[in-house]
Amino acid sequence: MGKHNAAHIVWDWNGTLFHDNAAIIGATNAAFAELGLEPITLEQYRELYCVPVPKFYERLMGRLPTDAEWEVMDETFHRYYTEHRIGCGLTDGVPGLLAEWASAGGSQSLLSMYGHDELVPLVRDFGIEPHFIRVDGRTGPSGGSKAEHMVRHVGALTGVEPARTVVIGDAADDAIAARHVGARAVLYTGGSHSRASLEAVGVPVVDSLEEAVAEAERLAA
């Protein structure tokens, strides 16, 4: 990466920087069990997952969950996830990638749909918080799209041009949120979506975060 890099990366957390697939699928199946639904595999999850999350449940149940069912499933999911995330770690190579991007003159921030109050100490505990000029988690109810959160996040970044901003995430919703603010996106296959579902979005799709950063530099040039 060259010096004097004015490009900016907005990183996703779950399934991108944080390799938490095991906790996610376990939490999903714990939520399904509350309604007597059969568990699903990681492959099924990656093929069917979408936001808003109730639509994902509709794909599996054949109908949208009722408000009462959603509340039970959402509470169960987050309780299980909180208990099991402690066994998860950063995706391989993340600290080095963040440091290299910064040393090349690029800026970076973190926007996640994980709750803000839980996200910030988790990022801090991994020792990577200093690499980010801003860290934002979700505020308000869970289960929605990242687009409006992206508007607020990018709007709060000083000196960052959306045209030279690239969102790196593992979900189609990351690309939709990027488009919403006039940024580019690169999608990573190691998280919540299958390669086929990511390729349907029409943005670059990569199999490693190293490739994602290289592609982000190219897109922002």
From TrEMBL:
Which GO MF terms does the UniProt record name?
hydrolase activity
What is the protein's name according to its record?
Answer: HAD family hydrolase
* Any coiled-coil regions, as ranges: none
Q: Spell out the Pfam families in the cross-references.
A: HAD_2
* Keyword Nucleus included in the entry's annotation: no
> Which keywords, in A-to-Z order, does the entry hold?
Hydrolase
Q: Does the keyword Translocase apply?
A: no
